[in-house]
Design goal:
By secondary structure, this protein is of the alpha+beta class. Helices cover 26% and strands 32% of the residues. Strands 2-3-1-5-4 form a 5-stranded mixed sheet, covered by helices on one side.
């Protein structure tokens, strides 16, 4: 999945979309990979599955892999108010 990350936010949350990407705000700063770890933990907690960073470790635009069997369940978990 393609994501747009906003580090240093007041709280961590999935905040809709940014174009075609999932917009995620995290409270962790971008130093030392802390924001990346928080993004992966947030996605894993919402999806109930492990998340892995594929690309974009130093960019706001990241590609993240979530290993699940039902893609629509991931969509519902990450964007419950959006139509699938």
């Amino acid at each position: 999945m393609e994501c747009w990350i906003v580090p240093g936010a007041s709280r961590s949350e999935i905040k809709g979309t940014h174009g075609e990407r999932l917009r995620i705000r995290v409270s962790a700063p971008p130093e030392g990979g802390r924001a990346n770890r928080e993004v992966l933990d947030l996605i894993a907690a919402r999806c109930g599955s492990r998340a892995e960073l594929l690309s974009g470790s130093t960019s706001r635009h990241k590609r993240i892999l979530v290993r699940v069997t039902d893609r629509s369940a991931v969509s519902r978990a990450l964007l419950p108010d959006q139509p699938i």
